[in-house]
Amino acid sequence: MPDEQPPRQQPTILITGTPGTGKSTHAALLAQQTQLKHINIGDLVKEKGLHEGFDEEWQSYTVDEDKLLDELEPVASAGGVILDWHTCDIFPERWIDLVVVLRCDHTVLWERLEERKYPLKKIQENNESEIMQTILDEAKESYAEEIVVELRSESTDELETNVDRIMTWIKAWKRDRVEKVDE
User: Keywords for this entry (predicted)?
Assistant: First the structure.
């Protein structure tokens, strides 16, 4: 019989969405209120050199997906983490317990990306992606429907409501796991 991993005590949550929708803010707030570790994938890629170089036109690193997945495997499969990235389809389904797709009105998003001093082409590309709900569709195609949640992220009130909602989900997830282990 192959080595069986003990049941996870903490979930792995993926917070995804178009750049500028509030992924890192949500993840950081959740990490402060839980025992979950926030992993900003973009930062991890830079820190650990998990890329194939820097793309000047897009002002971003070209991620080496194999290196990234190898780096994340032990942590994400064990649970207790919040993965924060603008894409989701590369992560194995077995790692992820909840996918939160943050959405934002395209005019609000445009302003946020301008504030970040993104090049116009990058703002346009990300705005189009948000309008076409590219990341939401990607999440729905990559994971079971029941674990994908779409949340609006345009205001501080929505941020607080979203974090409360995810906290409620985490409590229910833990309760369900404890009940299954006790049976």
Answer: ATP-binding, Cytoplasm, Hydrolase, Kinase, Nucleotide-binding, Nucleus, Ribosome biogenesis, rRNA processing, Transferase
Q: Is the pTM of this model over 0.85?
A: yes
17 known ligand binder: no
Q: Which structural domain range is residue 120 located in?
A: 12-171
d(Cα 151, Cα 159) in Å, to the nearest integer? 9
- Rounded mean pLDDT, 161-173: 97
116 is in an annotated binding site: yes
Work out the average pLDDT over 46-60.
88
Annotation-wise, does 49 bind a ligand? no
Structural domain includes residue 144: yes
20 in a known ligand binding site: yes
- CA 20/CA 153 separation, integer angstroms: 10
Cα(130)–Cα(146) distance, integer angstroms: 22
Q: Does 53 appear as a known binding residue?
A: no
What's the pLDDT score for residue 5?
59
Q: Does 183 map to a domain?
A: no
Angstrom distance (rounded) from CA 42 to CA 150: 22
Q: Residue 55's pLDDT is what?
A: 84
- Tell whether 76 is covered by a domain: yes
Task: For residue 103, give the CATH number of its domain.
Answer: 3.40.50.300
List, in order, residues 6 or more apart from 156 with CB less than 8 Å away.
none
